[in-house]
Amino acid sequence: MPKRAIMTDTAAPAGGPYSHAVVAGDTIYLAGAIPALPDGTRVTGSFAEQAHAAFRNLAACAEAAGASLDDAVRLGVYLRDFGDFAELNQIYKEYIKGDNLPVRTTLPVALEDFDIEIDAILYVG
Question: Which of 54, 75, 76, 85 has the fewest CB atoms in 10 Å of its CB?
């Protein structure tokens, strides 16, 4: 089964030589989304502002691949400061909804220049 790479100008540009998403059959893999605007300008400020920007980028990549965050089966969330975990959970509920919530891993990592990165796997079968 062939794979199809997705790039979109409705999300922040990829930070390196990779695609925003890859569609492989009924599965869509979304690259890590960071808090930046589609023109590449980084969103700075509060954790909430950065988290909303990262989720908007992730959603834009899902849409470009023909899906939505409602199709998520797994999310990975990477936080610079694990003290932001409770606030993340509140913001998360605005983007990830429904009775069949995806699995999620949340890890503290040494991010530079931003506070959050999010990736996802979607299933559209």
Answer: 85
The Cα 109–Cα 119 span in angstroms is: 14
In terms of C-beta density within 10 A (0-12 exposed, 13-18 middle, 19 or more buried), how is residue 9 classed? exposed
Range 9-30 average pLDDT: 97
Q: Write out the DSSP string of 43-84.
A: P-S-HHHHHHHHHHHHHHHHHHTT--GGGEEEEEEEES-GGG
Handedness of CA 53, 63, 123, 1 (dihedral sign): negative
Residue 9, pLDDT score: 96
pLDDT at 73: 98
For residue 85 the two structure tokens come to 């975990």
Cβ neighbours, 10 Å, residue 82: 12
By three-state DSSP, how is residue 95 classified? helix
Q: Please give the Cα distance from 125 to 115 (Å, whole number).
A: 33
Axis-axis angle for helices 47-64, 85-95 (nearest 10):
30
Beta carbons of 6 and 65 less than 8 angstroms apart: yes
